[in-house]
Amino acid sequence: MRQRGFTLVELLVALMVMALLSVLSWRGLDGMARATAITQSRADELVALQNGMAQFGADLDAMVDLAQTAAPAVNGGSMEAAPKLNVSNASKPVSLDWNGQVLRIVRASGAAGESGLRVVAWSRRLMPAQDASQGQWLRWQSELLHNPVDLQASWSQAAIWAQSPDDAARKSEVAVVPLGDWSIYFFRNDAWSNPMSSADAANATPDGVRLVLTLPEGSVLAGVITRDWIRPTVAGNKS
């Protein structure tokens, strides 16, 4: 009995079908891998945004009132016992300051076993190769401070960091999330207002801070996010 094998045409058709199945399978796997990577990236971005908002609130919660709060004792002395600073009102450290570019806060350290103050600063900076609608939300903090001279130096350094940071200052900053724009409002006299529009209240700690973030297109939560912080003592008095 004569055995019949596959013809050349049949082999070519079989090879073509297998090649087509391989291409379809590869595209399916590649699509799944891309979807997984995008999902993970968006999840990481969402976590970073949540952590940034939480840290922003924690910095404000730990804010100290330099006019009323005694500084930590150091070497038997205190911040009040140190020499007075000869600085202008514009550069003199206050508890909270917004100059349109950087938000500076004087806060307690907050770390276990640490006694002292820190200057923290929040700002938005354009990254290289980005247009004006793209930027990065950044946080900077000083070393632990124990005297008014170091406090004054760190307060000034925070402003310099926001404008033209050097390599040393960049080591103390943390990039939070991409940011299109942002603005800050203070709650004074039962109303939200631009902090720079009330010169007579420049040194007074506001009762609340409103943070408005504009997230760039393509981010996990594109659009505008508003977060209001109310000073705990104010909330307690009104409850």
Provide tags for this entry.
single chain; 239 residues; 9 strands
**Count of all domains:** 1
Number of helices: 4
- What spatial order of strands do you see in the largest sheet? 1-2-3-4-5
Query: What's the β-strand tally?
Result: 9
Gyration radius (Cα, Å) is 28 Å
Mean pLDDT: 79
Order of helices and strands: HEEEEHHEEEEEH
How far is it from the N-terminal to the C-terminal residue, by CA? Answer: 101 Å
Tell me the major beta sheet: 5 strands, antiparallel
Q: Give the DSSP E fraction (strand runs of 2 or more residues).
A: 15-25%
Question: Which structural category do the helix and sheet elements fall into?
Answer: alpha+beta
Residue share in helix: 25-40%
User: What are the low-pLDDT stretches, counting only 5+ consecutive residues below 50?
Assistant: 70-90
Overall 3D geometry? Answer: elongated
What can you tell me about this protein's structure?
The chain is α+β, with helices and mostly antiparallel strands and 239 residues long. The protein has one domain (38-238). 34% of the residues lie in helices and 24% in strands. The strands form two sheets. Strands 1-2-3-4-5 form a five-stranded antiparallel beta sheet, with helices on both faces. It is elongated. The chain starts with 7 loop residues before the first helix and ends with a helix.
